[in-house]
Amino acid sequence: MSPPAPALHPALRGRLTAGDAVVLALSLAGLVALAVQLWGADARPDTALVRIDGREVLRLSLAEAGQYAVEGPAGTTRVEVRDGRIRCVSSPGPQHLCERAGWLSHAGEVAVGLPNRVSIEVLGRNRRFDSISY
Amino acid sequence: MPAARPPLEPLTLAVDAADRRIAWYAALALALHVLEAALPSPLPGLKPGLANVLVLIVLVRHGLAAAAWVAGLRVLVGSLLVGTFLSPAFLLSAGGALAALLVLALAHASRCFGPVGLSLLAAEAHMAMQFALARLLLVPHAALWQLLPLLMTAAVATGLAGGIIARALLRTDAAAGSRP
Amino acid sequence: MRLFTFAGRRRVAALLGCVFALLLAACEKPDPLQATRLLVFGTVVDVATWGVTPKPAQAAFDELRTAFESWHREWHAWEDSPLSRANRAFAAGAGAALTPDLLRLVSDARAWSQASNGLFDPAIGRLVALWGFNQGERPDAPPPPPQAIAELVNAHPSMDDLTVDGEQLRSRNPQLWLDFGGIAKGYAVDRAIERLRARGVQNAIVNAGGNLRAIGSKDGQPWRIGVRDPRGPGVLASLTITGDESVSTSGDYERHFEWQGVRYHHVLDPRSGYPAIGAVAVTVVAESAEKADVASTVLMIAGPTEWRALARALGVTQVLRIDESGQVELTPALAARLHWEVSPPPTLTVVPEP
């Protein structure tokens, strides 16, 4: 009932056009990028980093429970991973600041034991705060 | 855009062929809408999106106005039938349909895309708008982002499937050399 | 169904190539946020930069590490350092020459001491040592005998006892012992920011033991700063910073020890010789880290009735003060921008403009 357009619209020709291919390719690439961005290793706080004097000594997945011991200048610091969290079980020093920090589970949370120069940090990109005043 | 039919004359009570066509398509879209609402879905917002395929076909065959009518009727009457009218689900559905329709209209006018590209773009726009609305209105929680890759994968899959279906149907048209 | 019967196959291939090249380029782009954690200065120093590539960022971090280490060696009040040697000279009635940084610290500290009616008093190093807060960590052991505390308080060492004698500094009071604990972190953070700026870094945060200064922004977004909850884990409130501002918090949860159920913290009131009572934490937002550091210390010492007058005297308008009963007081200027991170938010008293 309606006259066909001079050049038939590509959608009506029922072909896979170059544009279709580009859309499909971009869609798939976008999916990959989205998954990497949102599900990537950095996105979720599932890794903790244990450092002695700023040097990485342990990189632990918070998904696997376990107890670990690291040696620092003042002795042995013990850390424990359980239920997606990490804590300092014992660390040399009279004030036990590292232990007092308790369980860490959120990206950016930190426990530090100064005598042993040990720091435990939960990694992650989606940190809520860039810095904490304490 | 090729004008597929004369403009609507809403003030005349006479029902012309174009109206009947819209009613027919809208009824079909509604059937699909209700059918999809009845289907169990692992995630809210995860639907095959067959009604969108219909809108795409109407757009290609009969132009934007007809497609807008079908999409609008589908969302409005569909929500009344399923019982979600003016609920958050209705807002999501309407927003998604509107976004899909706008993207379809622009992409179709550009004459760069066939049914597969159009369907993909529409499905992605639909999902993206639904997600944005859900994030803003329903679940103001960052954890929702974790679902986005899954939802967009579903959108690409249904968009691709819908595109292939639409292409097959439109090709049948072209082969038959006729349009309903 | 022939899916790939399109024309212009090569054009599509070229397009796809471009898309993937772009994706790869995006993957290889270094993280604009570079950060490091230094265990220096007897505390934790966190430095973050935005928009600086890893190499220059690392060079800047190395410079700051060296700087903080040398300041630590220079300003330590008790271990062998230019400051501890000067302190011993003051005790012996002799003069001492100071490094340029120390001279500036002395003159800044003197000004803050005057502005705060002597509540800010870096001359009470002996009192700090008597309490044992000069060590890295103070063990839980009995507090010092009241008599010893009273003797040092009555000797009343203050910054006014220092006199300039040519190139040298002398003290009229042999009990004067300089300990810059209440200002050094802020001063160092300011110097660190200066050094970053000299390297062309426009967006950065330097946080030395909870005393921080933020400049610029992150990806066009303000820096998000959390304020620690003094009585719980995590963050009590937050605020955003763009441009250049500093936040400092003094709290009784910092260096402290407990004895027979009593908590003794390191912020000493020079008037009593005992840890300041009344406030558990004071947060100050100010234009420089030094000012925020000094003000948070002084307002922690000041009592519930005098802190507002002191804030005015120090030129500080943004203060959050939490007292022992959990009551939260804050100034209107800070109330306007502070966002509570605990629910329900604490009951607040917004005090009139100080």
Characteristic key phrases:
heterotrimer; A: 134 residues; alpha+beta; mini-chromosome maintenance (MCM) complex, domain 2; 2 domains; 4-stranded antiparallel beta sheet; 3-stranded antiparallel beta sheet; 3 helices; 8 strands; 22% helix; disordered N terminus; B: 180 residues; mainly alpha; Arp2/3 complex 21 kDa subunit ARPC3; 6 helices; 72% helix; globular
In brief, what are we looking at here?
The complex is a heterotrimer of chains A (134), B (180) and C (354). Chain A is of the alpha+beta class and 134 residues long.
Can you lay out the helices and strands and say which pair or pack?
The complex is a heterotrimer of chains A (134), B (180) and C (354).
Chain A: H1 10-13, H2 18-39, E1 47-52, E2 55-61, E3 66-72, E4 75-82, E5 85-90, H3 97-100, E6 110-113, E7 118-122, E8 131-133
Antiparallel strand pairs in A: 1-2, 1-7, 3-4, 4-5, 6-7
Chain B: H1 17-38, H2 50-62, H3 64-82, H4 88-109, H5 115-138, H6 148-176
Helix pairs in contact in B: 1-2, 1-3, 2-3, 2-4, 2-5, 2-6, 3-4, 4-5, 5-6
Chain C: H1 9-28, E1 33-40, E2 43-50, H2 54-75, H3 82-91, H4 100-115, H5 125-131, H6 146-155, E3 162-165, E4 168-171, H7 184-198, E5 204-208, E6 211-216, E7 223-228, E8 235-241, E9 243-251, E10 256-259, E11 262-265, E12 279-286, H8 289-301, H9 307-314, E13 318-323, E14 328-330, H10 332-335, E15 339-340, E16 348-350
Parallel strand pairs in C: 14-16
Antiparallel strand pairs in C: 1-2, 2-5, 3-4, 5-6, 6-9, 7-8, 8-15, 9-12, 10-11, 12-13, 13-14
Helix pairs in contact in C: 2-7, 7-8, 8-9
Describe the structure.
The complex is a heterotrimer of chains A (134), B (180) and C (354). Chain A is an alpha+beta fold and 134 residues long. Chain A folds into two domains: 10-39; 47-122, N-utilization substance G protein NusG, insert domain (mini-chromosome maintenance (MCM) complex, domain 2), CATH 2.60.320.10. Helices cover 22% and strands 34% of the residues of chain A. Chain A is built from three helices and eight strands; from the N terminus they run H-H-E-E-E-E-E-H-E-E-E. Chain A has helices at residues 10-13, 18-39, 97-100; strands at residues 47-52, 55-61, 66-72, 75-82, 85-90, 110-113, 118-122, 131-133. In chain A, a hairpin with a 2-residue loop joins strand 3 (66-72) and strand 4 (75-82). Chain A starts with 9 loop residues before the first helix and ends with a strand. Mean pLDDT of chain A is 81; it is low at 1-6. Chain B is mainly alpha-helical and 180 residues long. Chain B contains six helices and no strands. Chain B has helices spanning 17-38, 50-62, 64-82, 88-109, 115-138, 148-176. Chain B is globular and about 50 Å long. Chain B starts with 16 loop residues before the first helix and ends with a helix. The mean pLDDT of chain B is 81. With 354 residues, chain C is of the alpha+beta class. Among the domains of chain C are: 82-171, ApbE-like superfamily (T-fold); 222-350, T-fold (Roll). Helix content of chain C is 35%, strand content 25%. Chain C has ten helices and 16 strands. In chain C, helix 2 (54-75) runs antiparallel to helix 7 (184-198). The radius of gyration of chain C is 25 Å and the shape is globular. Chains in contact: A-B, A-C. The interface between A and C is large, with 33 and 53 residues. Strand 8 of chain A pairs parallel with strand 7 (223-228) of chain C.
